[in-house]
Amino acid sequence: MPEWLKYLLELTAQEMKQPPMFGGFHIAAAVLAVLIPYILARKFPPGSRAQAVRRLSVCGWILVLMEIYKQLFLYVIVNDMQYNFWYFPFQLCSMAMYLCILLPVLSRSLQNTVLTFLFDFSLPGALLALVFPEDFLRTYVSLTLHGFIWHGMLVYIAFTVWYSGLFRHSWQAYFRAAGLYLVLAGCAVGLNVLFQPYARPGAWPNLFYLSPYMKTGQFFFRDIAERFGILPEMVIYVSLYLLLAAVFNALARIRLSGSE
């Protein structure tokens, strides 16, 4: 690791008292992370499909740069040059990064599936993370801000899809997006299995919160895992998220039909 890079990372390693869940900072940051992206997406919608794809692609590359910084900061500053597989960038809220940079090279049909996924599946994940930001309420200013800005970007991406007029709100479009979600969730399970033997104790992967080796720490699902086991909890978790995404799609359909 070059010394100059370590020095630059150390410059951004300003510590802070960890903000409490549902405290003033959390509530204010979460509201701003939704309100500002919503206003920007609504006031400055892309004028065409090509413009929307370019804008979303730029958002994806911004997320790439943010992820590179986060990975370096965690590796050098937080984990003392040891990799923590918990932070491997393949969570549900990481998917917009990959999908947005791929958009320009996808066929129109695949673009439509991705655009629906970014609203139906990425948006509720971002909103839930902002409501329960335990993973990114940290003792470092940069990491805490990174978490709120990152999920605010996901909100902006989703509403850019909405206001571009490219959002597909049919059940057929939902099922195609649901298929993409299941493929990505399956990949996450595979990566959890692949990385598990190489992870240090306390640094195990739990991508998509679907590790077959560990109980989730998430409220409600933790109780299911303790009572029925990890596999039933994983099935219920995925099923309920599919249902949540279907609700978002249905609400969008109602909103669109009401505006016509």
Describe the protein.
The chain has 260 residues and is an all-alpha fold. It has one domain. The chain has helices spanning 3-11, 24-43, 49-78, 95-102, 108-131, 141-164, 171-195, 221-228, 230-259. The radius of gyration is 19 Å and the shape is globular. 32% of the residues are buried.
Give a quick set of tags describing it.
260 residues, mainly alpha, 9 helices, 68% helix
Instruction: Report mean pLDDT, rounded to a whole number.
Output: 94
Radius of gyration, whole Å:
19 Å
- How many helix segments? 9
Q: Which H/E pattern describes the elements?
A: HHHHHHHHH
Tell me the number of strands.
Answer: 0
Helix content: 55-70%
Structure at a glance:
This protein is mainly α and 260 residues long. It has nine helices and no strands.
Give the SSE layout.
Blueprint: H1 3-11, H2 24-43, H3 49-78, H4 95-102, H5 108-131, H6 141-164, H7 171-195, H8 221-228, H9 230-259
Helix pairs in contact: 2-6, 3-4, 3-6, 5-6, 5-7, 5-9, 7-9, 8-9
